[in-house]
TrEMBL record:
Superkingdom of this protein's organism: Bacteria
The organism's taxonomic lineage, starting at the top: Bacteria, Pseudomonadati, Pseudomonadota, Gammaproteobacteria, Alteromonadales
Protein name: Methyltransferase type 11
The Methyltransferase type domain, residue ranges: 73-121
Keywords: Methyltransferase, Transferase
Any one Pfam family match given in the protein's UniProt record, by short name: Methyltransf_11
A molecular function GO annotation: methyltransferase activity
Disordered as annotated region, ranges: 220-244
């Protein structure tokens, strides 16, 4: 079944159930990473990424790209209006779930990232309480359940194909997003303690390698034996080049 790319997409965190709480949780998790990111340009893809502060990173220029008029750049995620290898870090927050060709977006992002650049991906984890909305017809056509939830392992596989090293894969927010965020605190804490991989959101941090991880066979030069002709016993003829 084809995916309708014109389907309902979140344009701000308030479009999502418990959106402000989600935004704060993601911002807190990213705050631990920003001081480690250096360079000249940090790109935020999508409207939700644009609303996340990254000013604790020493990167000189922070800008956003989406279809919203308040974005720094307005453009297509599959055709970024940027030169090759000019961006030091890219953040995409809850973006791939609502786009028709997520792998193409990753390829285009790879094109503009420098070698050693950081890629931050925030997404919904299908192996978590948030998937309950997918099973309940009442919520299936609402945000965020109208989007596609990709397994974190699948996203890591895509990154591996593009030549990235995943340096971190974290989970956050142990809540189904149905009901008030403060409800069921004990259950959330229990899930976080006993099933840490069941967070409703994942944060994958990857770095672009200068060369792919595919092992290259060591082409060692094999020493050839120095063959010589056997001594002749009174025979005449040409000697090999090795005996001249």
């Amino acid at each position: 079944m084809s995916y309708n790319s014109s389907a309902y997409k979140p344009e701000q965190w308030d479009d999502l159930p418990n959106g402000p709480a989600l935004q704060q949780a993601v911002a807190d998790k990213l705050a631990d990473w920003w001081p480690r990111v250096f360079g000249y340009h940090l790109l935020k893809l999508g409207p939700l990424s644009a609303e996340l502060s990254s000013m604790s990173s020493p990167v000189a220029h922070h800008f956003s790209l989406c279809s919203e008029p308040n974005a720094s750049l307005i453009g297509d995620f599959c055709h970024l209006p940027l030169q090759n290898g000019v961006i030091d870090a890219v953040l995409m927050s809850l973006l791939l779930e609502f786009e028709a060709d997520p792998y193409r977006i990753l390829r285009e992002t790879d094109r503009v990232l420098i070698a050693g650049g950081y890629l931050f991906i925030v997404g919904f984890n299908p192996l978590s309480p948030v998937f309950l909305g997918k099973l309940w017809p009442k919520y299936q056509d609402k945000l965020p359940w109208c989007g596609r939830f990709f397994m974190p392992s699948r996203v890591r596989d895509w990154l591996g194909l593009l030549g990235y090293q995943v340096v971190s894969d974290e989970r956050l927010v142990y809540h189904p997003l149905i009901g008030e965020f403060n409800e069921g605190r004990f259950m959330q804490q229990t899930l976080a303690s006993w099933l840490p991989s069941a967070g409703s959101l994942y944060l994958i941090v990857a770095r672009k390698l200068e060369s792919p991880l595919t092992p290259i066979r060591d082409k060692r030069k094999v020493r050839q034996p120095n063959w010589t002709t056997a001594p002749s016993a009174g025979r005449t003829g040409h000697l090999s080049e090795h005996t001249k």
